[in-house]
Design a protein that fits this description.
The complex is a heterodimer of chains A (about 350) and B (about 525).
Chain A: H1 2-20, H2 22-41, E1 47-52, H3 56-70, E2 73-78, H4 81-91, E3 99-102, H5 105-113, E4 117-118, H6 122-125, E5 140-152, E6 177-179, H7 184-197, H8 199-211, E7 215-216, H9 220-229, E8 234-238, H10 241-249, E9 255-258, E10 269-277, H11 283-293, H12 296-306, E11 309-310, H13 340-349
Helix pairs in contact in A: 4-5, 7-8, 7-13
Chain B: H1 8-38, H2 41-45, H3 50-83, H4 89-95, H5 104-115, H6 120-129, H7 140-163, H8 168-176, H9 181-210, H10 213-217, H11 223-234, H12 237-264, H13 287-318, H14 327-357, H15 361-369, H16 378-392, H17 400-425, H18 428-436, H19 441-470, H20 473-478, H21 486-495, H22 499-526
The chains are: A alpha/beta (about 350), B mainly alpha (about 525).
């Protein structure tokens, strides 16, 4: 108690004194300012700047091992894919970034549209299934995620679930569906749906889902959490979020993935992807980094640690992940799913988005 | 007070810096106009769509209710912790403003985990009482609740400092005329508090307008959320700019409303600065209800979220979760927020001085302009500075100085408000007397003005420090590359559902930013 009293009586004095060192602080600020200018000037060839829409907890370790194995200094700016894309668009040709590692091709597409990505070499693109690269060669997929239905294991078993997305317009799902309408993966699935089913059918499906009063979540993670908590019974998400929960919460976590057996837009495989910024004068190192991400080591890392699908041949996947060949995935190139705008307009029309 | 003609010296020391700072604050607006100019007719027609107008209505509706509830909570709390003889008064005074330090995304997550459809309270009720469904918290009720809890301290702090300097002689006169304490409060004290309530409410309203974290988790579509969706879904900067300009116009309207109602409010203070503390009013039998009121506010707004966070940290440690090295992030957070608070205070001083000492059209305009960016979502201000920074001052781009400048643009009004309040307490005659006795203006400032405004500086420091500590959108984009802060740590972990890992940095943010806030309340308390 006495100790507390001392803290409380002494500290205000210290704080008061701190106003006397304003000038010192000014000098300090100026120094920080100077040092930051200097560090901007020194740009050794052996460095890379990456804008990453994938979070540090997921890709930090693999970037570390790239630094270790190549000695190239890598600086990463982490942020949301959309925010970083907007940042790149504002920066234009003055962007300090060499690479843009995005959660989904949508962000890369927006940047590529302004001519801000440079074409990748053919031998790099050929490492990956053509479904998962940009048709004009501006970006390449790095890791795959399958669209799935996540369901609550306390109330449902796989037999209760329909074989395709159409089944969820049945009134028996009223109030039981959770989905993230602002999430790019969900929107890309709808773009795929428009491609496969056509506009009218897609809109009909959305209206059918809306009839069932779906619950909206901000993104995939809270959707999975809500399904496990029983807030809703099923959720439309990507497959790999579940495994993150299983790792943290253990096998008792009451949600599991259901891969729709009949294929269609509900079984799309989406990817995280990367591209080189056109204004970068560091193409060589940037290319090395992409090559590293497509190496056995990095691909194995994604399979084991983030539970995503490797996109190159010959990588083993965790036992609780169904092999990608067994998924009834649709044969559609992600490069064809660029009309996000059309999807947004449709979502606004049916008032799933404001 | 008579309006003085600015002297030549004051033009250089006060007016020119104020005008330059104001021009800096206007950068985001210039950017928005440039972006909106690019927009095609489709984007403009969005303004007339019923859904846009509805969203605007919902946003204003939320802001109004959050402000009303905040006043309802803040007014009695402020009175009890300054003017009554409530037991543990000092403790309540320090604890009640603390919810301000909780970042809105953290507060909202905690609320959902407690009161959500399958949250802890629900599970407990189901186990013991068989209640199967709590009332829905998502949407308006949840957003109203969480934003009120996190922003009522703005009004509380502002009313408290005003209550501490009301002139006791007016009250005594009222009591001697036969009014009881209750009547005296409403007839004599409350009118004097109006400006403080308005100032605090302005901060609350603008906080609600720019908040993204709480409304997105609570799924209530405010204007800011719609702006974010524009960036997130369609990478559409022009439409986002048009919508942001609507937000700016709304801010202007709010500032005008505030101005008009302030002019109508009575601001008559006896001319001499009173040194007598206002009288303490015994609560008598109201003691217990008052204690229950204070403790329930503290329990709901502070103890429950705090213990929830501690629970997550412990759970994470138990599960073998690496808390990771938070030392670097802690240092960075303190450095950036501390420097920002100092810089913003320095910028606030000339603006506060001219608006108090030289009240005219220009100084009023300058002061109000500082609020224009205050309602803008962080991402908009950040992108504006990306645009100017990367293209025109690339040497400074993504360096600490530019980040600090972003904080200045975002949070200057908080500091201007605090400094202004304490300046208003100083009788200008005191300064004039010193000057007429032959002191140089700088010496007058050093000997008279500075010591008297110091409480305001401390308050401004505390407020800016805690707000920058929580700031996320601008920090993510504009910080020097690889610069980790605690807020970024929370964001990184939460976005990948590592809740246990997010809890430790969140707790640190709250603890660290509590220190200056507690100190500033404590300092004020000591005088009485």
């Amino acid at each position: 108690m006495k100790y507390l009293y001392v803290i409380f009586t002494k500290l205000p004095k210290t704080l008061r004194n701190s106003f006397k060192i304003f000038p010192l602080l000014l000098i300090f600020t100026f120094q920080v300012f100077l040092s930051s200018c200097v560090s901007n000037d020194i740009e050794t060839q052996e460095s890379l700047i990456i804008y990453s829409g994938r979070s540090e907890s997921l890709v930090g370790p693999i970037i570390e091992s790239f630094i270790e194995s190549t000695g190239i200094q890598v600086d990463v700016r982490y942020g949301g894919t959309a925010e970083l894309a907007a940042t790149l668009l504002e920066e234009g040709d003055s962007s300090p970034a060499d690479l843009f590692f995005a959660q989904d091709p949508g962000g890369l597409g927006a940047v590529a549209e302004q001519g801000m990505l440079s074409a990748l070499p053919e031998d790099m693109l050929s490492l990956v299934d053509p479904r998962f690269i940009d048709p004009s060669g501006n970006w390449v997929g790095i890791s795959g995620r399958a669209r799935v239905i996540v369901y609550n294991t306390d109330t449902l078993s796989p037999e209760d679930l329909p074989t395709d997305l159409q089944g969820f317009t049945d009134p028996k799902w009223k109030g039981k569906i959770g989905l993230p309408p602002t999430n790019t993966s969900f929107q890309t699935m709808l773009t795929g749906m428009r491609e496969i089913w056509g506009e009218a059918e897609t809109k009909l499906w959305l209206e059918g889902i809306l009839e069932n009063d779906p619950v909206y979540y901000e993104k995939n993670t809270p959707t999975v959490a809500a399904v496990a908590a029983g807030e809703v019974e099923v959720g439309f998400v990507n497959h790999y979020y579940l495994y993150r929960f299983l790792a943290e919460e253990g096998e008792s976590f009451s949600a599991r993935n259901y891969f729709l057996p009949s294929g269609g837009p509900g079984s799309l495989i989406l990817v995280s992807a990367i591209g080189v910024i056109e204004s970068s004068d560091n193409f060589e190192n940037a290319e090395k980094f992409i090559q590293f991400l497509l190496s056995n080591e990095a691909q194995q890392y994604f399979a084991n640690e983030t539970f995503e699908y490797p996109l190159i041949e010959g990588i083993s996947i965790p036992a609780n992940l169904p092999p990608i060949e067994n998924l009834n995935s649709v044969n559609i190139s992600l490069g064809d799913l660029v009309d996000l705008d059309g999807t947004i307009k449709m979502l606004q029309e049916v008032e799933m988005l404001p | 007070m008579k309006t003085k003609r600015p002297s030549l010296k004051s033009v250089f020391v006060l007016w020119i810096p104020s005008i330059l700072i104001t021009l800096g604050i206007l950068l985001p607006l210039i950017y928005l106009v440039i972006r909106a100019y690019d927009a095609n007719i489709d984007a403009w027609s969005l303004l007339l769509k019923s859904s846009t107008i509805k969203t605007l209505g919902r946003t204003v509706w939320l802001a109004v209710w959050v402000t009303l509830f905040s006043i309802l909570v803040a007014l009695p709390l402020a009175w009890l912790t300054t003017r009554s003889d409530i037991p543990f008064k000092r403790m309540w005074a320090i604890l009640t403003p603390l919810p301000l330090v909780i970042p809105s995304y953290v507060g909202a997550y905690l609320l959902v985990s407690m009161l959500g459809p399958r949250g802890m309270v629900q599970q407990w009720l189901e186990g013991s009482l068989g209640i199967s469904r709590l009332p829905e918290i998502y949407g308006f009720p949840g957003a109203l609740y969480i934003l009120t809890v996190l922003s009522f301290p703005f009004i509380l702090l502002s009313i408290r400092s005003s209550l501490q300097r009301v002139d006791p002689s007016l009250e005594e006169a009222s009591r001697s005329l036969g009014n009881n304490a209750w009547q005296t409060f409403w007839k004599v004290i409350f009118p004097q508090l109006k400006p403080a309530i308005l100032t605090g409410s302005l901060l609350v309203v603008l906080y609600v307008l720019r908040d993204f974290g709480a409304v997105s988790i609570m799924r209530y579509n405010t204007f800011t959320r719609v702006i974010y969706i524009q960036y997130q879904s369609s990478f559409d900067r022009s439409t986002a700019a048009i919508l942001s300009l609507v937000l700016v116009s709304l801010t202007i309207i709010i500032l005008i409303i505030k101005q008009v109602s302030q002019n109508r409010a009575i601001i008559e203070r006896s001319d001499s600065k009173n040194t007598r503390p206002p009288p303490i009013i015994p609560l008598g039998k109201w003691r217990w209800p008052a204690l229950i009121f204070c403790s329930s506010i503290v329990i709901v707004t502070l103890i429950i979220p705090g213990s929830n966070l501690i629970y997550w940290v412990l759970r994470g440690v138990q599960a073998g979760e690496k808390i990771g090295n938070l030392w670097e992030a802690t240092q960075n957070s303190i450095l950036a927020s501390g420097l920002a608070a100092v810089l913003i205070l320095i910028a606030a001083i000339p603006i506060a001085i001219i608006s108090v000492r030289y009240p005219n059209k220009l100084s009023g305009m300058i002061e109000r302009t500082t609020y224009l960016s205050f309602a803008l979502p962080g991402i908009v201000v950040a992108l504006a500075l990306v645009f100017f920074g990367s293209n025109y001052v690339s040497a400074l781009y993504q360096s600490l100085p530019l980040l600090l400048f972003a904080y200045l643009v975002l949070f200057l009004p908080e500091a201007v408000g605090s400094v202004k309040t304490s300046l208003q307490q100083i009788n200008p005659n005191l300064e004039e007397a010193a000057r007429s006795l032959g002191s140089q203006p700088f010496r007058v400032f050093q000997k008279i003005t500075f010591p008297l405004v110091r409480p305001g500086l401390v308050a401004g420091f505390g407020l800016v420090f805690l707000t920058t500590m929580k700031e996320l959108s601008a920090t993510l984009i504009l910080s020097p590359i690889g610069y980790k802060t605690l807020a970024i740590g929370v964001w990184d972990a939460v976005s990948e559902a590592f809740f246990a890992r997010a809890a430790a940095p969140a707790l640190l943010i709250i603890l660290i930013s509590s220190v200056p806030l507690a100190l500033m309340t404590f300092r004020k308390e000591r005088k009485y």
